[in-house]
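Job type: complex structure
Entries:
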Amino acid sequence: MVEQIVFILVSLFTLITAVVVVTNRNLFHAALALMASFLGVAGLYVLLDAGFLAAAQLLVYIGAISILIIFAIMLTRRLMHALESPFNSQWGLGAFTAVVAFAVMAGVIAQFWPVTPDSVTPLASRPEVSASILRGSVAELGRALVSSDAYVIPFEIASVLLLAALIGAIVVAWPKAEDE
Amino acid sequence: MNSVITSSWVLALAPEISLLVLLIIVLIYDRLIKPEERRQIGLVSAWGATVILLLTLGLWLFGNEPNVQASLRDSLIWGGMLRHDLITLVFRVMFLVALIVTSLISMDVEKLQRGEYFALLITATVGFSLMASASDLIMLYIGLETASISSYVLAGFLTKDMRSPEAGMKYFVYGAFATGVMLYGLSLLYGITTQTNLYVIGSILTGAQAIPVEANAVLLLSAAMIVVGFGFKIAAVPFHFWTPDVYEGSPTPFTAFVSTASKAAGFAVFIRVFTAGALGTPNPSREWWAMLVAMCIVTMTLGNLAAIYQKNIKRLLAYSSIAQAGYAMIGLVTFTPDGSGAAMFYLLMYVFTNIAAFGVIILVSNITGSEDLDDFRGLSRRSPYLAMIMLVALLSLGGIPPTAGFLGKFYLFRAAVNAGLWGLALIGILNAFVALYYYLSIVKYMYLYRSEEEHISIPVSRAAQVGLAFSTFFVLLLGVYSGPAFEWTLNAANAFYALIG
Amino acid sequence: MTPGQLALRSLIVGFIITFAVITGFAYTTLLERKLLARLQGRIGPNRAGYIPVPTRSGKPRRFLGGIMQPAADAVKLFFKEDITPAKVDRWVYTLAPMLAVIPAILILAVIPWAGEITILGQTFSPYFAIAPGVNVGIVFVLAITSIGVYGVVLAGWASNSKYAVLGGIRASAQMISYELALGLTVLVPIMLADSMDLGEIVAAQKGVIDWFVFRQPLAAIIFWIGALAELQRAPFDLLEAEQELSAGYTVEYAGMRFGMFFMAEYMKMIALSAITATLFFGGYRGPFVDQVPALGFLYIGLKTFIGLCIMIWIRATLPRFRYDQLMAFGWKRMLPISVLNFVVVGIFIVLQEEGILQPLFENTLRFLGIG
């Protein structure tokens, strides 16, 4: 029960801040709201007993990504005068699409309502989650990332992805000094 | 799926590993050479890719890698992340050929003579190759992202140009959104099955146990969302809006690369995910089947009709490539090994054809400085060989014998008819006639119109000569002697329909 | 114990520790002023409060002069006019000092202050902390430290002043650069102790010989430098840089709002000192701590105090970095060294676990003709 209430509060926080992100006219405030929304997501992870994921969310999304966004805004925008309208000529169409997409998704998910452990007919057996797995989840995660029968190839390829992104960043940011 | 790493597992990744070695060589070589020798980087990249292509083929011919006889369970390697089968090999050959020829035709474009450009081409190839062999949702996504991120940057590579960064940005925004939607679809799939392996999901969804009604709805939604991502990759209508702008703005060699390799990789995952039964048994009684057929028809028709009005040759070929994706989708929606094999053969010949066409455009636009159709006036007098190559490429795109395009379309339509899809085959044939109009209008510009600059010849470097001759040779070879190649793709396509026993 | 009781106990412990650290903050300011003065051959604040020690001459000696200085400062800060400049972004301007203080308090949650101990019939197991047994404790610390930069950045932006903004931009760039080296170095104690739980990291450093600082002095040094950079202490205090930015991000703040920034800085000093002690200097462990668990408080207090003294000492000794030097140092020295160090430690641990290290070592000695 308490968990339910906390979940609803955290979700509300996440959603409301997310709405602020897209509707706020001040770009800087929107970025701050984005950070708050990320914080809410971290809260959801904590509720799911995923402590490491929550800490990683804080570290990566709030500590690095949001800061970079704010950094970019501070460097590119004129201070305090950056009032952007979140609406353009296509907002009606956009809203319509969003509502339809939401209705479809809600409709599909509503088929599962009410969700109780026995009402769902799962196609596959549920993965067992025991307390010991949760306790050593970080070690399990680390082992899975380097096991040949688990995720070692995606893990290694992620480094190729990052290398490509790094080269790409260099291409984009390289000074265009020597004019041919 | 056991956890002991066998030599077969490592050999299955040999092309990717060698590509990464090549990537490092290119990056280091770029720092070592003198500025005036910069074009050598492209040569290194092309030679390296050639060696890797020979290695890949050699492993298959002499090392029996991949083993065609292996059961599905044995062909799933690295914990089910990858599947080592003939499909992967066929697609790898396409990507490596695209990489070789693209390197060759990029070599003499001065602005592209940078290590980063070739490095990104190589990482993109690695991504494509892994997309083609991925048999797990996670692997699929990572391969796709590796390829996409490299592609976004390559599209915007000419940072000083006006159109190129715009193309890169458009490609990026579109791509990020499409991938996001696809990811949501994949997560729904994981949600109802708690599995990420395509073939395991397939065995659950196509197994004896009936799919519950609510799960069916989720499957349909998931299929729609996944199609957004794949449709973006293969540039199918209605996810094609980026195509003309990106093709036009990107550096032309990259346009050649993205229109062939990227499309082929998109088809590889598209066919694999749907035929593995990851969204339910693939047959015309599925709800999403009608959606795919509709997409296929609209893609063909809209691509061709829009291409007629284009005055810029790169935009024209962009719409043409949308239409070509529509044809290849015919092979997909039949959901028979015949159809998938035909689609793979079609993509194989399309790689050679389209790269040849873009190679000619690069050489012409290097001299004229723009990509208007008018630049092709009197090409037959300025450079008969280039005009000849362009003619062969266009005939192949249009589907006229004795080029590969004819047989490609023939196999596709035959597969459709065999699967009972008469209407689809008919629409395809009608579209092929519409397409002939604009392909032949380019020929008209090249052979019938005169230009005041006819006396200025177009220099063709040795590298470009080799690249173009290579592609043209294969377009013609596959046109007159397609038997073995078609057998090969057909054999490969059988692997799509394997099920976990 | 039910979760509810556990939460209540954590709340109480949290209050006590937070107030202890806030008091510590007050006296750290005094320590800094006194010690800086001594290092510069001055006396420092010695008027506000003292303990009169009677002497034979009749005039009492003023012992511990300046002991009430923090209280005087606090009173001053509270009663100063709290100005909100006209063109600031009010929301963010108010939010910034809070966002500076909150992370500083949050870090305290996972630091183990003593071993298994029974106080007032309550047994704290496996160790005494506000939130004991968080299995990702150290990642939590890193995460919270990285949030700390928001206070500075927001203050800089909201003040609508170019000096403040420059301070904010410098801060964010600096934090992001040094966080990498810091995070990679933290992996070394994690690998040595085979756990991310701060309590287990302490438990792995049984005797003084086992302190990780002796096994990995390089990691300890990099961590300390990284911590100073995260704290934006001298020589990394570019965001304040009085001569260039006239105190940077705090330039538009007054009264207790300014005081809160001050408080955040000193509380983070204490927290990071304690964390350094935990990671590399055996934390609350020391002689007889197994017999008398309460000694743990003393030991970690002492170690933290020494850490604070070293910070002040560094401030008095080293000149400030130039901005490009700061960036070059972070990216071209700290990061490669910490990556290399991390890789080398990993290799050695694997060699040891596989039983290769010992024979390798002996054979090398034999080969050299020593063993």
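Summary: Chain A has two domains: 1-87, 131-174. DSSP finds seven helices and no strands in chain A.
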